Amino acid sequence: QVQLVESGGGLVQAGGSLRLSCAASGGTFSRYTMGWFRQAPEKEREFVAAISWSGDVTYYPNSVKGRFTISNDNAKNTVYLQINSLKPEDTAVYYCALAWRIQATAIMRDYAYDYWGQGTQVTVSS
Questions:
Q1: Which burial class, exposed, middle or buried, applies to 5 when counting CB atoms under 10 A from its CB (0-12, 13-18, 19+)?
Q2: Which of 105, 107, 119 is nearest to 32 (CA)?
Q3: 52-101: pLDDT as tens digits
Q4: DSSP-derived 3-state class of residue 25
Q5: Mean residue pLDDT across the chain
Q6: CB 78 within 8 Å of CB 22
Q7: Which one of 17, 29, 30, 37 has the largest count of C-beta atoms within 10 Å of its C-beta?
Q8: What is the DSSP secondary-structure string of 79-121?
Q9: Measuring CA to CA, which residue among 110, 103, 101 is closest to residue 36?
């Protein structure tokens, strides 16, 4: 059974940076797409980044482009999300998710992902 475990969240001041990690286990990881989503209180879950298994294709919504960077280390079965210039509105629980097969048109859709981590809290103080 595939398991995803996020880490790296915490309390940070506005303008700071964080690097979130998502470690995958319990499967043979190739040809996957990994995504990061976030959910703030009383808001819908929001897509923030995705990466192909090869690492050479990444996806970001315009809302985070330039501040968020997704990367992966296949030797460690780990995906990272670097967040710079943090803003109070970035406060949310951040989730990583894995999809074995996904159409490019569905990259931003949470229903397209097969496995989810438990989430890591990011709180940005002003």
A1: middle
A2: 107
A3: 988 899 999 999 999 999 999 999 999 999 999 999 999 999 999 999 98
A4: strand
A5: 95
A6: yes
A7: 37
A8: EEEEE-S--GGG-EEEEEEEESS--GGGTT-GGG-SEE---EE
A9: 110
